[in-house]
């Protein structure tokens, strides 16, 4: 297989940062999980008893991206562009590699049908069965980056 992107590029990081937002103090995410920084889920062995600095938040994001990048590289079996990798990384960062693994998006992508795969981003805009404006904007931005 041709050389694949291995790391999230600037466009992908910017997209993730834009939609995750930066919160320097602990908070509960939309499903009630403790979170900090750019959407870092706080693990049971971690404690954040003080606000983060922006550089600490960026370091956490970078660490979180590394494990997601590894998972993505294992799932994608076709050559993709950096923009496609970045769009998929935003998706995986938000929803997890497991959701991508079982998705029609990945099936289309690995079958070489990237335009059909791109349209599948738009399906993932719901929480609790209802479309959310923020998720709709994120999926549209991911699709646009994937097709660029």
UniProtKB/TrEMBL annotation:
Coiled coil: none annotated. InterPro entries: Bacteriophage_GH24, Endolysin_autolysin, Endolysin_T4_type, Glyco_hydro_24, Lysozyme-like_dom_sf, Lysozyme_dom_sf. Keywords: Antimicrobial, Bacteriolytic enzyme, Glycosidase, Host cytoplasm, Hydrolase. It catalyses: Hydrolysis of (1->4)-beta-linkages between N-acetylmuramic acid and N-acetyl-D-glucosamine residues in a peptidoglycan and between N-acetyl-D-glucosamine residues in chitodextrins. Its EC number is 3.2.1.17. One of its GO terms (molecular function) is lysozyme activity. Belongs to the glycosyl hydrolase 24 family. PANTHER family: LYSOZYME RRRD-RELATED (PTHR38107:SF3), PTHR38107. This is Lysozyme.
